[in-house]
Amino acid sequence: MRCIKGWALLFQVFFWSSLVQLSSGQTPSPALAGPSPPPMSNDGKMIDQGIAYVLMLVALLITYLTH
Fold this sequence. Notes:
Number of helices: 3
Structural class: mainly alpha
Largest sheet: none
Shape: flat
Strand content: under 5%
Signal peptide: 1-25
InterPro entries: AGP16/20/22/41
Protein name: Arabinogalactan peptide 16
Pfam family, one: AGP
Number of strands: 0
Transmembrane segments: 49-66
């Protein structure tokens, strides 16, 4: 039980730190920002990488719970 609380605390630390990073990512007004960069193209690589990370996390959790 003590180990599970440690993992929960670690998860909360990563979760809240990611929220802090997202909240500070505001851009200045368009007049001050200058010319806009070209739009990002999505070739599917980011989606594939996200799915791979989720699957790795699921595998890690299953391995942890079965031991």
